[in-house]
């Protein structure tokens, strides 16, 4: 794992994302309850838990889609508690899936090219000449190869098979060149074949980046995660590798008893 210079106010040097006392209430109901959570740079970290555990709320807090009621979030040692999602993306923290960044009536190739262009929007005129646009084509080709979309380059996004749509979303995320990718249930709604392909893809993409993933499919979590945090009723009840958390009595109880027993 790469080591990062310690910054002012920073915590352990190779922690990329950290929360302290993160809390979110909805009208008095505490959905995320005083959570201390930390993600090692370069790791693939899964967030799991029974229904209603607070995973999506936690995810939305981390990605700043929801404001927290209390607590602090640090990204690379910087307090991002009151930042906006767009600012985070520029810092290298990008959320994928469940926000559709894909234009259905454009081809896979065009979608990735636009994602690349939007990243450089601040330095380049978006709609410059074809020559300027074509400068992106090489990088588009690399990204399509990375996610297995080469055969679908000219297929409209709307016509892609479901799993390939997800691959396209991931490619548009990768176009942002993120250091940290947050994935909300990347396997949701997929058949077995797509699940396996997407799991491989996420593992591959995670080689050079940090990934935080909320995922229901425990087989996938077991296969690809370095570290797992288990939430129940808004609290962390266990953390560690798959063997550690799956052997934990409280985790077993939470999964057998559900979240609300
Ligand atoms: N906007 C909201 N208003 C009120 N309550 C909410 C809101 N969002 C979430 N909750 C409640 O907070 C708790 C946690 O919800 P959350 O969606 O974070 O759970 P989850 O772990 O993602 O569950 P699932 O596995 O079903 O996706 C639930 O009891 C839910 O009803
Ligand atoms: Mg959820």
Quick rundown:
With 261 residues, this protein is of the alpha/beta class.
Structure report:
The chain is of the alpha/beta class and 261 residues long. It has a domain of 125 residues: Rossmann fold. It has ten helices and ten strands. It has a six-stranded mixed β-sheet with strand order 6-7-8-3-9-10, sandwiched between helices. A hairpin with a 2-residue loop joins β9 and β10. It is globular and about 55 Å long. Magnesium ion binds next to α1.
Secondary structure elements and their pairing?
Layout: E1 15-26, E2 29-40, E3 44-48, H1 55-62, E4 70-75, E5 78-79, H2 85-91, E6 93-96, H3 108-119, H4 130-134, H5 137-147, H6 162-174, E7 180-184, H7 192-205, E8 210-214, H8 218-224, E9 227-232, E10 235-240, H9 242-246, H10 249-257
Parallel strand pairs: 3-8, 3-9, 6-7, 7-8
Antiparallel strand pairs: 1-2, 1-4, 4-5, 9-10
Helix pairs in contact: 3-5, 3-6, 5-6, 6-7
Residues 55-56 line the site of magnesium ion.
What is the CATH level 1 assignment of the domain at 1-83 and 220-261? Alpha Beta
CATH architectural grouping of the domain at 1-83 and 220-261: 3-Layer(aba) Sandwich
The end-to-end distance, rounded to whole angstroms, is: 40 Å
Low-confidence segments? 1-12
Bound molecules: adenosine-5'-triphosphate, magnesium ion
Seen as an oligomer or otherwise, the chain set is single chain
Query: Using only CA atoms, what is the Rg?
Result: 19 Å
What is the assigned CATH homologous superfamily of the domain at 1-83 and 220-261? P-loop containing nucleotide triphosphate hydrolases
């Amino acid at each position: 794992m790469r080591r990062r210079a310690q910054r002012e106010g920073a915590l352990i040097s190779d922690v990329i994302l950290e929360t302290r006392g993160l809390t979110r209430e909805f009208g008095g109901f505490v959905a995320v309850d005083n959570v201390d959570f930390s993600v090692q740079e370069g790791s693939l970290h899964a967030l799991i838990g029974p229904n209603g555990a607070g995973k999506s709320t936690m995810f939305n807090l981390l990605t700043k889609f929801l404001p927290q009621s209390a607590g602090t979030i640090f990204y690379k040692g910087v307090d991002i508690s009151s930042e906006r999602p767009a600012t985070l993306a520029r810092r290298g923290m990008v959320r994928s899936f469940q926000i559709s960044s894909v234009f259905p009536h454009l081809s896979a190739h065009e979608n990735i090219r636009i994602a690349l262009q939007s990243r450089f929007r601040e330095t380049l005129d978006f709609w410059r000449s074809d020559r300027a646009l074509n400068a992106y084509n090489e990088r588009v080709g690399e990204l399509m190869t990375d996610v297995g979309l080469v055969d679908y380059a000219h297929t409209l996004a709307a016509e892609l098979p479901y799993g390939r749509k997800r691959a396209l979303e991931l490619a548009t995320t990768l176009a942002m060149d993120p250091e940290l990718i947050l994935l909300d249930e990347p396997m949701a709604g997929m058949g077995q074949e797509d699940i396996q392909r997407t799991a491989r893809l996420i593992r591959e993409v995670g080689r050079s980046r940090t990934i935080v993933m909320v995922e229901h499919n425990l087989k996938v979590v077991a296969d690809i995660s370095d570290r797992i945090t288990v939430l129940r009723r808004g609290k962390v009840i266990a953390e560690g590798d798959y063997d550690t958390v799956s052997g934990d009595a409280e985790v077993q109880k939470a999964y057998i008893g559900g979240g609300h027993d």
